[in-house]
C-alpha cells in the first residue's frame, strides 16, 4: 500500500513545482530511456541470480564426480562397494565402503524406529484428538525441538543418553551407534509429525463426519479413513526423515566414535559416511592422495543416496496424492 | 429384517470405546515424549553450563585451561560469518524469488529451477562442506577463512530464503500490482515500490530463520577446516575463525580427556540456544506484528 502512495507522491511533487503537463511529458521522456534500460536488464540480472542455485548443484556434482573418478583409478569400483574393510591410513590402506554403509543404514534404521511411531502418533494426536487450544500449545514445542542445532543433540547423546543407556545395557561401549541413532530419531520426530499432520489436516472433514455418522469411533475414523486418505503425505514424510537421518553428521560424529567396524552389533562403535567425511577433512588430508579422493567417493555415495530418497519422496507425494 | 444387530453392536461397543480411549492416551503420551526430551535436554544443559557462564567466559580467549577459557573468539567469528552470510543469501535468495514469481514464465526453465532448489534443500550439509572446501577454500585459494565459510553457509541456507520469499511475494494481492501499473509504473518500479515493501515482513522472517539455521550449523565448517587449535580473534572476512557450534564440537569430543570441557560445551550451548531463541522470537514478532492479511 505504502508503495502506491509513493508513486503518487512523486507526481504530486512535480505539480508543486508548477510544471505544465507538456513539461512533465518532456521530463518523463528523458527518464524513459533510463527506465527502458533498467526494465530490460533487471530481468536478466535476476535470471543470473536465479541460475546460481543451479550452478551450485552443478558445482556439487562436478566436484564430487571428478574426484570420485580419480579415486576409482586408484581403487577398483567393485572393491570399494564390496569391501568389508576400511583402513584409510597407514601402509596398506584398504578402502571398502561397506563398514560406512552399514553404520549409516543401522543408525538410520534405529532413528526411524523411534521417529516413525512417535512422529506418526504425535501427528494423529495433534490432527485428530487435540482441541484447538492444546494444539496451539503443543505445536510451538515441536517447532522448538526442530530448531535445536544438531550439535546440541550430539552433546546430549554423548553426555546424557549414552551414560543413561549404559546403566542398563552393560555391554554398551562409551561410543556406540545405538545412542546417536535414538537421538537422531528424536531429532526427526518433529519433521515426521508436522509433515504427517499437514497431510492429515488436508483430509476433508466431510469424510470424517461420514464415518462418524456410520457409528465409527475416532480411532476407527483415524485408522480406516484419515490415514488411508493421507497415506501419500505420511509416507513422503517417512522418506524425507530417512534422507535426513542418512545425511545427519554431528550427532553420529560425536557419539559413535570413529571405529570402522563392519558389524551389526548396535552396542559397538561404528562410523557413518558423514562421520568419515568429517574425520578425514578434520585430519587435513593432503590433496592428491587416495585418502583425499576417498572423501569424494564417500560424499558422492552419500549424495546419491539422499538425492534418490528426496526424489522418491517428491514422486510419492505427487503421484499418489488424492485430491479432494 | 434388520440390517444392524443391536445386541451385537452393544457387545462390541465397550471394547471399541476402550480401544479408542487407550489409543488417545497413547497418542497423547507420545506427543508429550517430545516435550519431555526438550525439558530434560534444557535442564541438563543449564545444570552443567549455567555455573560456568560469567563475563570472563564471554570475554576471554580460548584456552586449554578450563578455568580461563572463554568464547570471545567464537562469538566474533559467528558475527563475522553473519556479515558474509546475511547479504549474500539475501541478495541470492530474494533475487531468485523475484525472478521465479514475477518474471519467469511458467515453463520448463522455472520449473527446473524450482525442482533444483527443492533438491538443494535436501542435500546433506556435510556435502556443502565438501563443495566449500573444494571450490572456495582450495580452488579459489581462500583458505579456511570467514569468506569461504560464509559463502558455503549462504548457499546452504539459500533454499530457506527462496521459499519464504516466494511465499511472501505470492501473498501480495494482484490488485496492488494492478493499481501500480494503472498509475503508469513500470514492472520493476512496481516490484521495487509495491511488491517488495508489502512482502518485506515475510521475507525478513525467512531471512532470520535462515540465519539462525546458519548459526547452528556445524558440519560444513568443520569440513572446510576450522582447527581445534587456539587461533587469534578474527578481524575481518579474510581471517581464520571459529564459531560457537564448532567450539561446542571440539569441547564435547575432548571432554573424555578433561571433564570440565563438557561444562564449557554446555555453557556455550546455553549461549547458542539463547541467541537462537532471541532470533526466532524476533522472526515470530515480525510475522505477527507486520504481516498484513489482504
TrEMBL record, chain A:
Q: How does it sit in the membrane?
A: Multi-pass membrane protein
* Cross-referenced Gene3D superfamilies: MetI-like
Annotated TM spans:
45-72, 92-120, 141-165, 177-200, 221-242, 291-313
What GO cellular component term, any one, is given? plasma membrane
UniProt keyword Membrane present: yes
Enumerate the subcellular locations listed in this protein's record, separating them with semicolons.
Cell membrane; Membrane
A matching Pfam family: BPD_transp_1
Keyword terms, alphabetized: Cell membrane, Membrane, Phosphate transport, Transmembrane, Transmembrane helix, Transport
Has keyword NAD? no
Q: Which InterPro entries match?
A: MetI-like (IPR000515), MetI-like_sf (IPR035906), Phosphate_PstC (IPR011864)
Give all residue intervals belonging to the ABC transmembrane type-1 domain. Answer: 101-313
Query: Per the UniProt entry, what are the Gene Ontology biological process annotations, in alphabetical order?
Result: phosphate ion transport
The UniProt GO MF terms for this protein read: phosphate transmembrane transporter activity
NCBIfam families named in the record: phosphate_pstC
Q: Which family does it belong to?
A: Belongs to the binding-protein-dependent transport system permease family. CysTW subfamily.
Biological role stated in the UniProt entry: Part of the binding-protein-dependent transport system for phosphate; probably responsible for the translocation of the substrate across the membrane.
Put simply, this protein is called Phosphate transport system permease protein
Lineage, broadest ranks: Bacteria, Bacillati, Bacillota, Bacilli, Bacillales
UniProtKB/TrEMBL annotation, chain B:
Which superkingdom? Bacteria
Q: Which GO terms describe its biological process?
A: phosphate ion transmembrane transport
Main localization (coarse)? membrane
Location comes to: Cell membrane
Q: Which residues cross the membrane?
A: 21-43, 71-100, 120-140, 146-169, 190-211, 264-286
> Does the keyword Transmembrane helix feature in the UniProt annotation?
yes
One GO MF term attached to the UniProt entry: phosphate transmembrane transporter activity
Indicate whether Glycosyltransferase appears among the record's keywords. no
Give the keywords, sorted.
Cell membrane, Membrane, Transmembrane, Transmembrane helix, Transport
| Cellular-component GO terms for this entry | plasma membrane
Similarity comment: family membership: Belongs to the binding-protein-dependent transport system permease family. CysTW subfamily.
NCBIfam families named among the record's database cross-references: 3a0107s02c
Q: What is this protein called?
A: Phosphate transport system permease protein PstA
